[in-house]
Amino acid sequence: MSLVDVLFLLLAGFAASAVNALAGGGSLITFPTLIALGLPPVAANVTNSLGVSPGYVASVVGSRHDLADLARRRGRGTLLSLLPTSVIGTAAGCAILLATPGRAFELVVPFLILGATAVLALQPRIRALVGHPRDLTAQQSRLALHALVFLGSAYGGYFGAALGVMLVAVLALVLDESLRYVSALKNAISAVSGLVTVVAFAVFGPVDWVAVAVLVPATLAGGYLGSRVLMRLSPRILRVLIVAIGAVVGVVLLVRAL
Questions:
Q1: SS3 75
Q2: Fewer beta carbons under 10 A from the terminal one: N or C of the chain?
């Protein structure tokens, strides 16, 4: 890897992690960058997952005050109970990725991203059809939350790009909270999912460790900065940003696949 490649990856990692903290979808930057550097799609995805995972942890640190507020509102035990669900879901997604052909990966991922983006964009209409989160009983809300965290985490284990878009889209359907708090919870679940992918792919995946070593410091810095900016954005701007990023991610990867 040349010095130019290293600088390119550092910049991509910083930008991607900042975008992940804000809305998700930052892997639109790092994933194509790794492809451009010559990695095959699955290897690029695995390497990208490991490289951006520390940024999720930095995002949690940056949004810790929002997480603390949410824990007081929802109950610390309720939020902590989501962590094992995320671990199991992510492990399932990692297993599916490593067991299926690379071509299947390329074809499926764009539709997953576009579907998540559509859910978030049409969220008000979907809520009108299925009901507002406050219309759910406590048990229904808890079960729905665990089911959606499992599915979102499985997606994250399979493909890290736009994990934030997917999580925000589904969490906002069952949590009667502002997008600021939903995004803070998204950061925590993303961090757990990222740690699981690190373990799974480090042992079983085709990782480019040089690229990971370059990405990690950049994603740590970008994740913390992005989470601080998040606290100053209005919910409407944040929603538009998430939908725009998700749409771009999906279309770009669909064009590449076809």
A1: coil
A2: C
Which tokens in the block code for residue 11?
């910049």
The full DSSP string for 180-209 is HHHHHHHHHHHHHHHHHHHHHHHHHS---H
DSSP codes joined into one string, 101-136: -HHHHHHHHHHHHHHHHHHHHTHHHHHHHH--GGGS
Structural Rg of the chain based on CA atoms: 17
Query: Reduced to 3 states, what is the DSSP secondary structure of residue 234?
Result: coil
Distance of CA 141 to the CA centre of its chain: 22
pLDDT for res 150: 95
Tell me, what amino acid is at 194? G
pTM of the model: 0.77
- Tell me how far apart the alpha carbons of residues 10 and 156 are, in angstroms, rounded to a whole number: 22
Q: What is the mean pLDDT of the chain?
A: 81
Cβ count within 10 A of residue 27 = 30
CB 220 within 8 A of CB 54: yes
